[in-house]
Amino acid sequence: MSQACLTCGACCAYFRVSFYWSETDAHPEGLVPQHLTTAINPYLVAMRGTESKPARCVALEGDIGGCVSCAIYAQRSSTCREFEAGDARCNQARLVHGLLPVGMDVPAVAIASSVVEPPLEAAGNPLPLPSRLAELPGASGVTALPL
């Protein structure tokens, strides 16, 4: 398990965790406790709590973004075993829960509120940027806030 997973749990509280029924202990070779699943159709089951929104897997212990663990980690489904920390789906779930993508160390608020404008000269445009928002056409009475 990734270190990022130990302080996350977002995937367990965002996606439906569905898999083929034979992965449950209802099948001689299955591991996932059947009583923790619900039928999706004759062939698929899902972990209880993930079959509707808001989702939260019944096996997830702890608080999202805090210390978390899976109560059935050794018995988890292939869906969970194949999920990769830091991939696009992982980071999607993390963002929904207000967590940064794996590997980022800047608060999400700073990312959302920052504005970076490349110098016009770098883009091949010789025109200078207006030094104040009020200098833009149609912006009379508008003032810019410092970043």
Largest sheet: 3 strands, antiparallel
Outline type? elongated
Discrete helix count: 3
Strand content: 5-15%
Percentage of helical residues? 10-25%
Could you name the key traits of this structure?
147 residues, three-stranded antiparallel sheet, two-stranded antiparallel sheet, 14% helix
Task: Explain what this protein looks like in three dimensions.
By secondary structure, the chain is largely without helices or strands. The protein has three helices and five strands; from the N terminus they run βββββααα. The protein has helices spanning 78-82, 88-96, 108-113, and strands spanning 18-20, 37-39, 44-47, 60-62, 68-70. A three-stranded antiparallel β-sheet has the order 1-3-2, with no helix packed on it. Strands 4-5 form a two-stranded antiparallel ribbon. The two termini are 39 Å apart.
Brief summary of the model shown:
The chain is largely without helices or strands. It has three helices and five strands, in the order E-E-E-E-E-H-H-H. Helix content is 14%, strand content 11%.
Lay out the secondary structure.
Elements: E1 18-20, E2 37-39, E3 44-47, E4 60-62, E5 68-70, H1 78-82, H2 88-96, H3 108-113
Antiparallel strand pairs: 1-3, 2-3, 4-5
